[in-house]
């Protein structure tokens, strides 16, 4: 089905992202798969084409505002859900090496189908909890970048994500507009986990009133062995 991609193209231009015809087709196929699978499994409450483009695709790609995404950067996407931001990032920036982590196996199965259908390389899924994989030597402090659009407070997300980040790397949390109080409350957690708040970028999604923030925490020293705490603890008792 032909869809009008003019608004998508315009928003991409604002981010200085140029997509080939093949990449654009990959986004359209991803959209179709998302909507089709969503009929039988809860992946997203947002299904209308322009809204998915805006609130999922462009929102995911807005990471480019905070970090240079060219080159073979190793990225961990924690709590990826239906594949955000990892899959849009992979389509737009094929050199990225991405691992998608989610705790629900049904979502992982969907993501594997998307990866296969879109013929994406150097991207894979892992099924489980961040607290467990963050202690796994294969994944601990192995990534240049850890990203998350998951809904949780920043202190909890930092405990999920910082253990994956190598020293000198970054954890970037996608947040809605108002994050000042959350930032203040998460400084202790960032410090305990070996991080330092680098910047908080506030912006509006292209041509909308929708406020967003990207919170960038830099990894300045190794995360202590005590973290992450066992499964469930970071959400119930944030640092």
Topology:
Blueprint: H1 6-14, H2 21-38, H3 49-61, E1 74-78, H4 86-92, E2 97-102, H5 105-117, E3 123-127, H6 130-133, E4 143-148, H7 154-161, E5 165-176, H8 180-192, E6 195-204, E7 211-219, H9 233-236
Parallel strand pairs: 1-2, 1-4, 2-3, 4-5
Antiparallel strand pairs: 5-7, 6-7
Helix pairs in contact: 1-3, 3-4, 7-8
Q: Give me the CATH fold name.
A: Rossmann fold
Strand tally is: 7
- Quote the average pLDDT: 95
> CA-to-CA gap between the ends?
48 Å
Overview of the molecule:
With 239 residues, the chain is of the alpha/beta class. The protein has a single domain, classed as 3-Layer(aba) Sandwich (Rossmann fold), CATH 3.40.50. Helices cover 37% and strands 22% of the residues. It is built from nine helices and seven strands. The protein has a seven-stranded mixed sheet with strand order 3-2-1-4-5-7-6, sandwiched between helices. α5 links the parallel β2 and β3. α1 packs parallel to α3, α3 crosses α4 and α7 packs parallel to α8. The radius of gyration is 17 Å and the shape is globular. The termini are far apart. The mean pLDDT is 95.
Descriptive tags:
239 residues; alpha/beta; Rossmann fold; seven-stranded mixed beta sheet; globular
Question: What's the quick description here?
Answer:
This protein is of the alpha/beta class and 239 residues long. 37% of the residues lie in helices and 22% in strands.
